[in-house]
Amino acid sequence: MTDITRRNFLKSAGVMALAVAAAGVLSGCDSRSKNPVMADVKVEYWRKNRYLGDQKVSNSNNDEYDETVSVVKSGKVKKEQLQNLGKVMVNTGYKLSDSTATEFDVDWTQEPPVAKVWMEL
User: Hey, what's the signal peptide range on this chain (predicted)?
Assistant: First the structure.
């Protein structure tokens, strides 16, 4: 075993500390860890009518219940993001067609993207 001097020990300890710090910095360079891209999605409330076909839920103002929510691009609208859902249910008497739904599909081919929430009596 060789004798190590204080100077050599401090040099090697410094180099090791630098190597550990560099490894820690580089471990944060994952290309998949980017922030998600968000997009504004227009939410529309619709109902099916056996005589008149699909109709947008509204009173006198056709866009009264429409709202815009921010969604991760290519994602779905979550039920808790819907601010006007309660107002639609109280004012019109409609309820969700699928009462267990927690997410709603978005049509990303439209500009702006649109999510249709289907209601029923």
Answer: 1-27
